[in-house]
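Lab notebook, bench 4. We co-purified these components, and the gel suggests they stay together. Before we commit to crystallization screens, I want a quick structural picture of the whole thing.
Request: model the full complex, all chains together.
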Amino acid sequence: MAKKGQYTYEYPHPAVTADSVVFGYDGKELKVLLIKRGKEREASTTAYAGEWALPGGFLDVEKDKTIAHTAFRELKEETGLKLSIKDFKEVGSFSDIRRDPRERVITITHYALVKLAEVEASTDAEKAEWFSWADIPHLAFDHDKILRVAFSRLKQDIHFEPVGFELLPEVFTLPQLQNLYESILEVKFDRRNFANKMKHYGILSEIEDGTPRHGTRTPVKYRFDKENYDRLKGSGFQLEF
Amino acid sequence: MAKKGQYTYEYPHPAVTADSVVFGYDGKELKVLLIKRGKEREASTTAYAGEWALPGGFLDVEKDKTIAHTAFRELKEETGLKLSIKDFKEVGSFSDIRRDPRERVITITHYALVKLAEVEASTDAEKAEWFSWADIPHLAFDHDKILRVAFSRLKQDIHFEPVGFELLPEVFTLPQLQNLYESILEVKFDRRNFANKMKHYGILSEIEDGTPRHGTRTPVKYRFDKENYDRLKGSGFQLEF
DNA sequence: ATTTTTTGTGTAAATATTACACATATTTTT
DNA sequence: AAAAATATGTGTAATATTTACACAAAAAAT
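Here is the predicted assembly.
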């Protein structure tokens, strides 16, 4: 364990943390992973104990290769979720001089998109919980603000990035895909126009499951055609609505 | 002056800097403001002395309200340019563990857009120089990479933000505006289509300077109609090409 | 003086977007 | 068990947007 007062500098240094906004989608609603704050860094005073907050923690100055590695490591430690470094997309920094009561702390926030069904089992329910976007509690520090900024970044990115790929399960339906877009963009689309446009892009593969499918109201299942998407993206394609 | 070893922490802390990419436009070419590195922080070892670099410097932990204030202060100190805090748009952080040979330094980068003609005089030519985008020298640290990322962010933002307002002088011509868009987006547009689209948005006011203007090849002068632009933007307008 | 470059302007064709209705199986309600 | 409500898939015509394209005149360069 580190001895107190071991690290000295000629000029004052801030602490740096990485917080993560992890979005999931269960086919119905957009969700966010939050943790209940306990104590951290054994010896330091705990701030906002017992409140909900974004998962995150301090940069390990000697070990973390980049700040994304901090985000990765802390998310795993705090929620059990083991993603990949490249899943973390930087949102920005939050550096207000009073944002942490203990000392000057700059946080760099990332967001990540996960397939909820696939990861729900591996999140440590003791410490972490998935909250519906519509039902987020008040958060510690300036995490309310951070969450809003992360969401607006997601909202921007969805125009150009295949966020569907990352949030939906392998097999999904058009209504699910549409609902996801509507949840993130906070608008409603016409069902026919949405389907036409999506099919026109050629990035959906219909799954033939044998059932002859005479009636409706059992939605057709699709898979993303990743190869086609990558090809389109390479030639300047933009997924827009 | 600070005494050596005055600031101690229980855990190691990184240094945090703010670097700025300042873009200017002279009616012909996109330019970037760079500084020649000398020594900084009186007592510390100077890295990359004599090389070109982005303007920037260390966060003042006790005084800088946010990291944007650091960017503002350092830009003024190093180049003489006095912008406004809200001119600084965050690009992102660069945190590679080896990016600074002296100690662990995380940098948070902003970009800013300026009307070159108006600020050229106030940049301290002793220390700072405007470089054409096509003619940027090799830079210190990972500043080459930072510059590329900042440019690609500008390229994205131009779709949705009135960067023309910020880079062009009050009075400008359509060819200048088009050239600016072409420089940033790295494409060529058809002159008629560009003019049609721009005029259709209703954000340009033609300036009547009395001259009857029988001939062509003396471009018509315009001003941005800021009010109209703001109104359009408020109702979801997007400037696209 | 001649040539080259720069500028402004309009229209037709192609493409993309929008608006819109019904039949039917499933689910929910009574 | 029956009835009502809900969710699903499908196509076309009207409108709006985007693209492609040529010439005449002044200024600048040769």
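The first strand of chain A starts at residue 7 and ends at 9. Worth comparing against the SEC data before the next meeting. Residues 8 and 14 of chain A are 12 Å apart (CA to CA).
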